Amino acid sequence: MEQSGSARISRRQAIGVAGGVVAGATVAQAAGVPAFGAAAAADADVIVVGHGLAGLVAAAELVAAGRKVLLLDQEPEASLGGQAFWSFGGLFFVDSDEQRLMGVRDSYDLAWQDWLGTAGFDRGITDPAGQDYWAYKWAQAYVQFAAGEKRSWLAGLGLQWFPMVGWAERGGGVADGPGNSVPRFHVTWGTGPAIVEPFEKKVRAGVAAGKVVFKFRHRVDEVVVTNGAVTGVRGAILEASTVARGKPSSRTAIGSFDLKAPVVIVASGGIGANHDLIRQNWPARLGKAPTTMITGVPAHVDGRMLAITQTAGGRVVNPDRMWHYTEGLRNWDPIWPGHGIRILPGPSSMWFDATGKRFAAPDWPGYDTLHTLGSITASGYDYSWFVTTQKIVDKEFALSGSEQNPDLTNKNLWLLLSRIWQTPGPIQKFQQYGADFVKAATLPELVAGMNRVAGNNLIKLDALTRQIEARDREMDNAYSKDAQVMGIRNALSYPGDVLGRTAAAHRFLSTDAEALVAVKLNVLTRKTLGGLQTNLQGQVLNAAGTPVPGLYAAGEAAGFGGGGVHGYRSLEGTFLGGCLFSGRAAGRAAAAATGS
């Protein structure tokens, strides 16, 4: 984490914001005095609630339009950028330069086919009162954005992408069903912090110009509505906190605030750290909610603002749609409570339920996360297993998170190239110190280790041996009836997978495997797919489908657009993109609404 922290400091030094300006803004916050003049009827043109990526993008648009902005968050300044800072930096582009370099033929039509097959919109897409009405429209607009100006817009801000495009969510095996038909996962050079940086820079320039005031440690408890229109926010000022990014901060209140503006943009994130709220909204179609889950986001991702905005008249739709990962590891070096890390797997590991029964199609690594989640809960247990080889771990395993990828995050090309001849350092540490890895020279030793880690005797040597030997026999030819083996062969026809993400096909029970590895996989909470329903301008709608005057939403709080742009599933690389797109739309619309 020291590397991530130092990288953040160096970026802020590069931004070159004068210390006196920041100090002055801090004094203004502490005194509760609007920086724009106490005589004004409003404290700002727009109040943005949430200083994550969507909030920063919205604020940057408002600054560009000359508006005065208050940017509030309950967390301290160290957490500026929110969850995006911790991300791997994956972005969904369609027909990009990087795709063409890798020989990938993509198009808007193919991407839209994939989005529809993955989302499965089924809640009134033609009915203005339907939960999916605006979600469908946002999805169309977003795929057009991803196939159009998205890449050039971000490139113009200085972002670059690793040339090997990843193939996430490969789907369920039919052309018009879930999944990406082609690789579309573009890893940003510099990962999540690099995506946050240009927008933070723009907002800090707004601070220097007197257009923006940060109000850290300001927890919004009410969106104020007067005569049917939003007129500001009220809440508590929390005591100062010096905790590091991502660490839980105090909730001790030392005062209150009442801030006025004709427009409020809610960009407060989702519910990923609130396990009680996740279980409350857990859909019956996914079986019983897991008793034990690990957490993929900091503790402040609590979903409070959804209910608060609903009280102000906003409509929350699709609350039962959520995105939790099935390949979670307990972090051996946690930052927040219950901190989990996701394995980003290649296609070769065998996947078994807690009893040692191999999952069927499409429950393979990297294929259909939502279906696999349902299969895990149907097994009656909260966890599952990868059984794999060290050769596959070395080539195919990556970990989510900027801090787990110091080579990409710190733009260290030499360290990145070292992945060719050695297991990445973070993977080595998880194998050495993590609670979920088992490594063994023989299958009996592996089974004993799996049962020891799980604290039971559910894995039976004879059954596991039979299934692995059956799979190994399918490796003798370049064709197979085993659909997962066919998928491995398919991956090996894509240059990006050959170079970086798929091990050469081999038997598990052979000397080529190097060693056997088992990984206990936990359900990892992450994203809220439903949320505040918004029109294409980011205006929050009420139960009648009418915009609540002065109320906007962006990012995860709005289901990344429209109250659920993803439908039931994500194609991956679309969460950061959803924050960018919806934050930009809300910021521009709010700027227009407050123009003279």
Percentage of residues assigned to helices? 25-40%
Report the β-strand fraction as a percent range: 15-25%
Examine the secondary-structure arrangement and name the CATH architecture of the largest domain: 3-Layer(bba) Sandwich
The total of beta strands comes to 21
CATH-defined fold name of the largest domain = FAD/NAD(P)-binding domain
CATH class of the largest domain: Alpha Beta
Structure notes:
Residues 45-576 form the FAD-dependent oxidoreductase 2 FAD-binding domain. One of its GO terms (molecular function) is steroid dehydrogenase activity, acting on the CH-CH group of donors. Keywords: Flavoprotein, Oxidoreductase. InterPro entries: FAD-dep_OxRdtase_2_FAD-bd (IPR003953), FAD/NAD-bd_sf (IPR036188), KsdD_DH (IPR014614), Succ_DH/fumarate_Rdtase_cat_sf (IPR027477), TAT_signal (IPR006311). This is FAD-dependent oxidoreductase 2 FAD-binding domain-containing protein. The chain has 596 residues and is of the alpha+beta class. The chain has two domains: 48-210 and 303-321 and 529-594, FAD/NAD(P)-binding domain (3-Layer(bba) Sandwich), CATH 3.50.50; 324-524, Succinate dehydrogenase/fumarate reductase flavoprotein, catalytic domain (Flavocytochrome C3, Chain A, domain 1), CATH 3.90.700.10. The chain has 21 helices and 21 strands. Strands 10, 12, 13, 14, 15, 16, 17 and 18 form an eight-stranded mixed β-sheet that branches. Helix 3 links the parallel strand 1 and strand 2. Helix 1 (2-15) runs parallel beside helix 9 (191-208). The longest helix is centred in the C-terminal third of the chain and has 19 residues, at 575-593. The protein is globular, with a radius of gyration of 24 Å. The two termini are 46 Å apart. Mean pLDDT is 93; it is low at 1-40.
